Amino acid sequence: MGAGGSKTIIAGGLKHCTLWKADRSPSCRAVMMALDALNLSITEVDVNMDKGEHKSPELTTLNPLQTLPIFKDRELILNDSHAISMYLANRYSTSDQLLPRDPGRMSVIAQLMHFDSGILYPRYQMAANPILYENCNFVMPQHVCDIECAYNDLETMLAGKTWLAGDTTTLADISVAATVSTLNVLVPIDHTRYPRLSSWLDQMSEEIYFITANKTGLGEFTRRIDRGTVCDDSVFKCPRSSTSRRGSVTERN
């Protein structure tokens, strides 16, 4: 069930916050991972993009661009995953690990998130959209080249570091991991050419928030790419809370 005839359920945690999302979207999964890493719970509403629910009058009013995610906190509406994640960390987190308050470190993280939004995500869209929406059966050679160039950039960025912004995971790692794990489905990362990037993604995949918030949607995306599978309505049972989503994944594992 999408946003349009959803039954209202009061979520635990931040009851005044709602996230409209689709799990197959890397940008939505980035926000979900940020929520789980920050241990925040808000109301989450699954939107069936195959049925065009993201273009409904209700959601178009919230986001005229007709994209996901959409985040609402009282009267505030945000439609960019990076802005949403930074807002959540700034507004509701008591820890500064994922988003340090130091201006220098915060700027490094912002710079990496701009790399995600300006380089990685557009390359994901260029490669994936023809397969998802135009009956194309392969990633075009130029898109493969562009994605591998981005892999090379990340390999260089990770020189001498475990994580992208230093010694600990931050919102930069979360945002980039959501996109890179999806790119890895389209153009598998060659661990011999990109050993640092491959090791970084392996470490990210072991983080609990990657498992609870990224793994399911990544599997859905993979099925869509491999077989063109469209999800049935049984998976759309929102609104639900972030806490209940995390709990259901923990039970399955």
What is the topological layout?
Layout: E1 14-21, H1 26-38, E2 42-46, H2 57-62, E3 70-73, E4 76-78, H3 81-92, H4 103-133, H5 141-157, H6 171-186, H7 195-205, H8 208-213, H9 215-227, E5 240-241, H10 242-252
Parallel strand pairs: 1-2
Antiparallel strand pairs: 1-3, 2-5, 3-4
Folded structure, characterized:
- The chain has 253 residues and is α+β, with helices and mostly antiparallel strands.
- Helix content is 54%, strand content 9%.
- The protein is built from 10 helices and 5 strands.
- It is globular and about 45 Å long.
**What class do helices, strands and sheet pairing give?**
alpha+beta
Return the average pLDDT rounded to an integer: 88
Please identify the top-level CATH class of the largest domain: Alpha Beta
Q: What would the principal axes of the Cα set say about the shape?
A: globular
Strand order of the largest sheet: 4-3-1-2-5
Q: Between the first and last Cα atoms, what is the distance in angstroms?
A: 25 Å
Number of domains: 2
Strand share of the residues?
A: 5-15%
Number of helices: 10
Main sheet characteristics: 5 strands, mixed
- Based on the coordinates given, report the CATH architecture of the largest domain: 3-Layer(aba) Sandwich
Rg measurement, Å: 17 Å
CATH level 4 superfamily of the largest domain? Glutaredoxin
Order of helices and strands: EHEHEEHHHHHHHEH
Portion in helices: 40-55%
